[in-house]
Design a protein that fits this description.
Blueprint lengths: L7 E2 L5 H14 L3 E3 L7 H10 L8 E6 L7 H12 L4 E6 L10 H13 L3 E7 L3 H11 L4 E7 L7 H9 L3 E5 L11 H10 L3 H11 L3 E2 L6 H8 L8 H8 L19
Parallel strand pairs: 1-2, 2-3, 3-4, 4-5, 5-6, 6-7, 7-8
Helix pairs in contact: 1-2, 1-9, 2-3, 4-5, 7-8
């Protein structure tokens, strides 16, 4: 199954909250669920998946390996799969390059590919990689074998250098924090575009990213927001509206943990 363009992000969703969110999302038609070892919610997501009437083959599950587990990469992935109640992740990512981990990137990437070779993941990819690291991943895995680079990207932080380089390497961008922690929701340009479509600003931002060819994984605990975000898949922006949003770029990065992040491009 190819990486869907739209899904549910589950960062900061734990316990019954994430069970309810995943259950509702699947009910509404979401088919991509994005999680990670660091989120501490894989077991709860597994409960929601087991209780859902949606067949496993129709659900795309992404999880990510946390740097603390790089030294036990494959066993940690097997633990994640057990918690999720699945035999194979549809997509497995290195969560952060973590240069301070002491693990050479080539070794981590080798472990990632080992997971694919063992059938623990159907596809593999990376998250928060810079251009040089993407190139190293492709050199090791082969062109077309790194499915995505999941990076922070929003109308206020369009991450164009990385996005352009990813496209040239055959890597799809997955955008997280597409709504920039809500800071874009009162933007006058986005409000104007939303008003013209009878849409919300969130829908406009998500539609903008998908129209650029990115995957989006917005998170919500509210049923109304889960339904509303999904409507972004039906929204088509004009060339002029896309250009107006392109002009909003502020190079405003929000996530930059020193021990985990690379030297950004």
């Amino acid at each position: 199954m190819n990486l869907p363009a739209f899904g549910l992000g589950t960062f900061r969703l734990e316990g019954q909250v994430v069970v309810d969110a995943v259950t509702a999302a699947l009910e509404f038609g979401y088919r991509l669920i994005d999680t990670a070892q660091f989120y501490s919610n894989e077991a709860e997501i597994g409960r929601a998946l087991a209780a859902s009437s949606v067949p496993r083959r129709d659900i795309f599950i992404t999880t990510k390996v946390w740097p603390d587990n790089f030294s036990r990469f494959v066993p940690s992935v097997k633990e994640s799969l057990s918690k999720l109640g699945i035999d194979t992740a549809d997509l497995l990512l290195i969560h952060w390059p973590a240069p301070s981990s002491g693990m050479p990137l080539a070794e981590t990437l080798g472990a990632l590919l080992d997971c694919k070779n063992q059938g623990l993941a159907s596809q593999v990819g990376v998250s928060n990689f810079n251009i040089a690291q993407m190139q190293e991943a492709v050199a090791l895995a082969g062109l077309g074998n790194i499915a995505t680079n999941q990076v922070e990207l929003s109308p206020y932080f369009q991450n164009l250098k990385v996005a352009t380089a990813a496209k040239s390497q055959g890597i799809r961008i997955t955008s997280y924090m597409t709504l920039a922690r809500g800071t874009i929701l009162e933007d006058p340009v986005l409000l104007d575009i939303a008003g013209r479509h009878g849409a919300t600003v969130a829908q406009v931002a998500l539609a903008w990213a998908m129209q650029l060819g990115y995957t989006v994984i917005p998170s919500s605990t509210q049923r109304s927001n889960l339904q509303g975000n999904l409507l972004a898949t039906q929204l088509r922006l004009s060339d002029d509206e896309m250009a107006r949003i392109a002009a909003l770029d502020r190079d405003q990065r929000m996530i930059n943990p020193p021990a985990l992040a690379p030297e950004w491009d």
